[in-house]
Amino acid sequence: MATYTAAEVAKHCTENDLWVYVVVDGVKKVLDLTQFASHHPGGVDALMEVAGGDATDRVLEVHPHVLKGVDKACIGTLSD
Predict the structure, then answer these.
(1) What was the pLDDT predicted at 2?
(2) R_g (Cα) of the chain, nearest Å
(3) Residues of the domain holding 65
């Protein structure tokens, strides 16, 4: 699995190239949500608020159950 820096993840912050990271069991998992963005129940705007950055708090706040299924979109981990 690939390892990315926060700077690399931050470059992916558009509707057509949307990455975030979330902390799951102490591991910072990088997710590519590009294909999912147009299907997000809260709309693309909700994802754009966290695009390119840490989405952990938002996910825990709105729908913590999603953290169980993040491996489907996981493309790697975030380096410290």
Answers:
(1) 97
(2) 11
(3) 2-78
